[in-house]
Specification:
The protein is mainly beta. Helix content is 4%, strand content 50%.
């Protein structure tokens, strides 16, 4: 019990898990590239952030781990004026997070698999009925020797979308990721592909599609010290959900150090 991520986020196996360095599209690309206000700009499954919640994770049972969490209100957290949080301010309420994962090995191939679901309701400031949280996702990562491969998919259904916009064809989007890596000694290299799609309401142009191709490398300089470089090629179509579509594309390059104590 406390301020923490929910069970879906903890259980989800994402392709970025096999990538080296900053983990492809999971590595802060959206901090340096403008995706606009509509696109799903990176991987992640967590409608409640670090809001106060109850979470249970089972011990491993023959490779299986189960998790569940309940968040009363995504705007509530310890400290500050949490108890004064409004019931009509756009937060998510009564969010149930569920996840099951399995880790095992067959003929020297290691694998991690997960199925997750997140379910709840949205508050509104004007009384309109927003789409419920009905997120589902699945992922698998494989490792053999120095190689790693990963895939995951998440669908956010109509989370937070007004009834009117749902009727006009809008949804909250979905994404998938692919990843591959090679590691030997202190070195690691990887390539990742992230792509998302959001269907927009009639009159708001075509779908909002975002793509990120990532090349990452990492070098273990010393115990607890990694030097990392990341090159990302990003693009987004109809970034603002407008009839006169606005697109963007660009390249992001980052060099960073990571210290673990």
């Amino acid at each position: 019990m406390g301020d923490q991520d929910d069970a879906t986020d903890a259980a989800h196996v994402g392709a970025h898990g096999v990538l080296v360095g900053r983990g492809g599209a999971d590595g802060d690309v959206a901090d340096l590239f403008t995706f606009g206000g509509t696109a799903v700009s990176g991987p992640g499954v967590n409608a409640t952030g670090d809001a106060t919640k109850i979470r249970y994770t089972s011990p491993g049972i023959n490779g299986f781990t189960f998790g569940a969490s309940w968040t009363p209100d995504s705007g509530e957290s310890s400290g500050g004026a949490a108890t004064a949080d409004s019931d009509a301010d756009g937060d998510n309420e009564n969010v149930l997070g569920l996840g099951v994962s399995y880790s095992g090995e067959v003929t020297n191939v290691g694998f991690d698999v997960s199925l997750i679901g997140e379910f709840g309701s949205s508050e509104t400031a004007d009384g309109a009925e927003d789409g419920d949280i009905q997120t589902i996702g699945a992922g698998i990562n494989l490792t053999k020797g120095n190689l790693g491969f990963g895939f995951d998919y998440v669908d956010f259904a109509e989370q937070g979308i007004t009834t009117a916009n749902q009727a006009a064809g809008q949804d909250a989007g979905s994404y998938y990721q692919l990843g591959a890596s090679y590691q030997t000694g202190p070195w690691g290299v990887s390539i990742g592909w992230f792509e998302s799609t959001v269907s927009n309401a009639t009159g708001s142009g075509g779908d909002t599609n975002a793509r990120v191709v990532s090349l990452d490398t990492a070098y273990g300089v010393a115990p607890g010290w990694d030097l990392m470089a990341s090159l990302h090629f990003a693009s987004v179509d109809n970034m603002n959900s407008t009839a006169a579509e606005v697109n963007n594309d660009g390249t992001v390059f980052m060099i960073s150090n990571q210290f673990n104590f």
